[in-house]
């Protein structure tokens, strides 16, 4: 399964309040209308607190 474009993923995370957890990222993206492919890749991120969009993008690229 190839990851959706990180720019697409960040579009769904626009406005999220950092720091936040993986589950908060998933819920925020869901509330912004993210498709299931993006949500699955967010769920695959390590379960930790993220301090900003760069940290999310780095881990997202690894999934």
Structural class: mainly alpha
Envelope shape:
globular
How many domains, in number, for the residues? Answer: 1
The topology string of helices and strands comes to HEHHEH
Radius of gyration: 10 Å
Report mean pLDDT, rounded to a whole number.
92
Tell me the number of helical segments per DSSP (H or I, 4 or more residues long). Answer: 4
Strand order of the biggest β-sheet: 1-2
- Counted beta strands: 2
How far is it from the N-terminal to the C-terminal residue, by CA? 9 Å
**What oligomeric state do these chains adopt?**
single chain
Main β-sheet: number of strands, strand sense, barrel status? 2 strands, antiparallel
Query: Helix proportion of residues, in percent?
Result: 55-70%
Strand content: 5-15%
Q: Stretches where pLDDT falls below 50 for ≥5 residues?
A: none
Protein name: DUF2795 domain-containing protein
InterPro entries: DUF2795
List the helices and strands and how they pair.
Layout: H1 6-13, E1 20-21, H2 22-31, H3 36-43, E2 49-50, H4 53-62
Antiparallel strand pairs: 1-2
Helix pairs in contact: 1-4, 2-3
Characterization of the model:
This is DUF2795 domain-containing protein. The chain has helices at 6-13, 22-31, 36-43, 53-62, and strands at residues 20-21, 49-50. It contains four helices and two strands. 57% of the residues lie in helices and 6% in strands. It is mainly α and 63 residues long. The protein has one domain (6-62). Strands 1-2 form a two-stranded antiparallel ribbon.
